[in-house]
Amino acid sequence: MTNIIDNTAVLGENVQVGYFTVIEKDVKIGNNVVIGNRVTIHEGTEIGDDTTIADGSVLGKSPKPAKTSTVKLSDNIPALKLGSDVTIGCNAVIYRGAVIGDNTLIADLASVRENVVIGNYVIVGRGVTVENFVNIGDRTKIQSNSYITAYTTLEDHVFIAPCVTTTNDNFMGRTEERFDKIKGAIVKKGARVGGASIILPGIVVAEETFIAAGALVTKNTEPKTVIKGVPAKFSKNVEERELL
Fold first, then answer.
1. Structural domain boundaries in the chain
2. At a CB cut-off of 8 Å and minimum separation 6, what does 100 contact?
């Protein structure tokens, strides 16, 4: 036997399944879906039409925090849902409790945690980590090796360049006070964040802000401004031709 497919799983028309793949109970797969080799699709996962899932991916994994983790899980995390025409790269891991919109790409080696909502036409690049309780709007692009911390919001048409780091804890794991104050960034519509930038906890990046590469963002920004430096400061206004 090369594959293990539970008899309660529902596969649509023209579904292709590679070798050594496991599909657990109550999985629902739409039409014209291509599933690679060594893929694991966990219980209850729903996959829309015309989706491609590359070799080695794990879909619908249940979270299991470490004993020292501060993550609190509900007793009933819903199954993973993938929209239509989604592409999942090799060895990507997407947890139970995530919702992925239509025409979205989750690239090779990316990780998407539970309680995450990702919109339509989104790109999550190679090696990107999206932690729990994150919302990502339509047509947002997150390039390779960026880190999107828990409790972050990226609105529509946001651009995150490679190796960007977002943070959510000013106490860095110390004091009980921090639990009520953990908060990721809110990056508003059309904002652009340059490569290797760092955004501190709770920062609001205003609409159409341009953050230059390598910036350390310590304060909320103003709309349609260019900021740069360590710490980041106002440089100039964004040119009209660059606005959405």
1. 1-62+75-124, 131-244
2. 80, 81, 82, 83, 86, 94, 106, 112, 118
